[in-house]
Amino acid sequence: MGKPSRRWWQAAVLAALGMLVATSVSAQRFDVARLDGDPLPLQVLSGELRNDFASVEGQSVHETSRRPRWWRLTAREAISPADAPHLILRFPYLNHVEVWRPGEVMPLRRGLVGDDADPGFSTRALVVPLPQGLATGESIYLRVHALTPTPMYVDVEPLAQVHREDLSHVALRTFVLGTLAVLAILAIGFWIGIGERAYAYLFLTLAAQAFYLASVGGEVRMVPWLADLIGADPRVGRMFGLLGVLASNSFVALYLNLPERHPRLMRALHGCNAALLLLLLATVGSAANVLGVLASAVFLASAVATFVASIAGALQRQREAYFMVLSWTPMLVLAVLRMGELLGGWRNPEWMEYAFPIGLAMGGLALTIGLTDHMHQLRRDRDHASHMATYDVLTGALTRSAITERLDALVDAAQRGRRPLSVVFFDIDRFKRINDEFGHRVGDQTLRIVALRTRNRLRTYDLFGRYGGDEVLVVLPDTQLREALCVAENLRAAVNCRPLSIDNRLFNATLSLGVAELHHGETVEKLLERADAALYASKETGRDRVTGYTASRLRTTAAAPVANTANAQNASTIF
């Protein structure tokens, strides 16, 4: 079993490496060269500075300086005009480019936002038509105004392919931004609905990520005034990114309960948040590229701290941590790859430009599912605690507080509707002796059996609650005193009809019961007081009997019991 499985893993790894190599290595159509400085266009186009251009490896324009810089793309082979070729600069983000085609004096200006944007194409790339094609050795000159220090991949595509790629790009970006927007709306809805603070942090995280992606990816050009603001100032998108990381760190701390579970990691996140706040303030005053690199470094540190906290929580079997591991593992890998590219360590393949936003969307989805699961777990815990507070663990009866609360509501309804209501108080005769002779375990079993036998004689809407010790309160809605006496007699008979058998011991158990009917205008306290008095009357007259409290003796504080049935041994009496 192990060898085939190992071969499958090896094949998967080799396939992934093959895809990586195949994606990152494409036919190089141009020799790319860069010129330091910003001379006059006439000097460059005339060929006067031909020898001053320095060759650059690869097939991308990677400009890290904020000052305009000249680039030259020299065709390695002829490009035929037959298929309507177009020069493609992929993933330009906020960069603006002036393009001089062969033989032209005036440039074409291209950018994703602002006056240079071409709405005929998607935000995937800056697109420049080459209606005459290119001959071998012909050059295209670019003057690059870089606001984003990321590489723009250079290629030539026929017009039909440009449109196909644009459709795919629009579909993918719509999915990513739509997912983030929907999740953000759900998060704020849950926050408003249930008041859970974690949803507020999740909403801020998702909303900031969506605005960041739309800002740097060019989708903000659908809102002209916002496009003018962002196209002219890269600080806006960077600030959204910083706010997203801040909100994410706050969410993680709350979601994983880091202050209590992992205080050291909490301190690390506090340090990251302090650095993010400083970067946020610095970004307000400066758009320097170094701030973007520092922001990426702090994001990477936050991702590492979050990932370590998630692994630690998972090792402790913390349910929430599993969702964090699922969310942050790909994000950590993508952050490391992007940081390495910004620092000049390597060039990432083009699909990385799609992998990062997809990772954000999928991470947000995983966090939303995890937080929803967390809320469900809290609700289950709350329901369990509510059940424990409502029902007695030993007997399954309502607790004293639960049955008292429900009795209050039933008494109010009975008084308003002028409907009858009766209560029965009973306890087990000589229960202390059972505990003393046989032990508390037998006493607990006795309570459980008595509760089972008596509860089975009641209607589904009658209430059965343990009032204290071995004392039980039964509430009988829509029941007059005479009917309640019959119910009480059934309860008494259910217990003394046959002996109890517990731990190979056989012994008899009996009940003493007191019954009272609610009078008009009477309080709950007074009703229970009369039922309790009837119970004690049953005790005083010999136990194993039912006593009722009549209306005619309601105001009498002491009265002698009077026989109510013909049963000589187990008489029901009325006060």
Automatic annotation (TrEMBL):
The record lists the catalysed reaction(s) as: 2 GTP = 3',3'-c-di-GMP + 2 diphosphate
Keywords annotated in UniProt? Membrane, Signal, Transmembrane, Transmembrane helix
Q: Which residues form the signal peptide?
A: 1-27
- SUPFAM superfamilies from the UniProt entry: Nucleotide cyclase
Under SMART domains, the record lists: GGDEF
Q: Which residues cross the membrane?
A: 170-192, 199-216, 236-256, 268-288, 294-315, 322-339, 351-372
Tell me which CDD domains the record gives.
Answer: GGDEF
Q: Does Repeat count among this protein's keywords? A: no
* Gene3D superfamilies found in the cross-reference section: 3.30.70.270
Q: Which NCBIfam families match?
A: GGDEF (TIGR00254)
Which source organism? Answer: Lysobacter panacisoli
User: What is the designated name of this protein?
Assistant: diguanylate cyclase
Residue ranges constituting the GGDEF domain according to the UniProt record:
419-551
**Entry EC number(s):** 2.7.7.65
Q: Which EC class heads this enzyme's classification?
A: transferase
